[in-house]
Amino acid sequence: MKALSFDTLDEVKRYLGEKPSSRGLVLFASAGAVRELSPHAPANAVLCSTKGEYTPKGYRNGVVSGFEYDADIADIVEILHPPVLSGDNLKASYHKVKDNVNAFLLLLCDGRAAMEETILSSLYFIDQEFKVLGGSAADDESGETYLYIGSRRVRNLGIFFNLTARTALIKENIYVPTGTKLLVTEADVFGRTVYSFNGRPAAEEYARVLDVKEDLLAGHFLSNPLGKRYEDDLIIASPMVINPDKSITFYSQLMPSTYLEVLSAADPLVVLEQTLREIPFKPAFVLNINCTLRDRLFLRDGLWAGFDDKMIGFCGNTAGFISYGEQYYKKHANQTMVLLLVG
């Protein structure tokens, strides 16, 4: 796999016109850029709208990033709404690769439809150990997200890759438990809205445990999201907005009668050093998906330059994007980085 980066849309259009049909392609760009590029995209190209791009030179905003690969190693599957309508096609592609420990599914979703958990639950036939990663497409000023297979717009898609090279998935959290927990006592799961924690209005109780004024609570969301515990794994659930009735809408689903960990931020660059130390092999390619909320934090605190020094120093053949949520195996996360490593 080869990372790609383009500074202008004219460069991309020339590249698309010259690209041989034997090469597959995934490109990440702003919503407007994706719209403009889509008429020029060949059938084995995938386009995804983003909030920012990751390139062999590090984090950028307003460029086009992506990667190319041998087209014969991948099956591209449109995922319809509801996802169960695509079950047969997804199963057929999965069964081609399910016995390959290096195979994986790249899942790209509509970041405004709040369907990630529904899509993941529709993959019940996929083994728990099979690698699934992905990100959710970002929107434009009108709230539209854009995903294309060639010149055809789709709502969601998956690409099954049948690689011979070694692969691994890494998930990085830059948040740690504070020791305080909140019990979800009333919630609309599919609406991703929590009405009460510990039997009290959600915003009121969240502010109380953080020891902040309720009218200042939203300013603490970046620094103090919540974590869902799955055995030894911690999946971040990020608050989106406080509603007039003091309920809180999140970027992922939260279930009633479950405890959530209140989190605080660690030093992101120290965490990245630890992440890179623990990677099991030296990769030849890295796909890097970062949440838009990490992007906000990194921009606020001036962290991208230090992050890029470490990440690009580790592997220069790196591509990726800033997403509206991350898929890691069969879980949907927020405020997370997911890495695919290819040996």
UniProtKB/TrEMBL annotation:
SMART domains: FIST, FIST_C. Residues 21-201 form the FIST domain. InterPro entries: FIST_C, FIST_domain_N. Pfam families: FIST, FIST_C. This is FIST domain-containing protein. Residues 202-330 form the FIST C-domain domain. It comes from Paenibacillus borealis. It comes from the Bacteria.
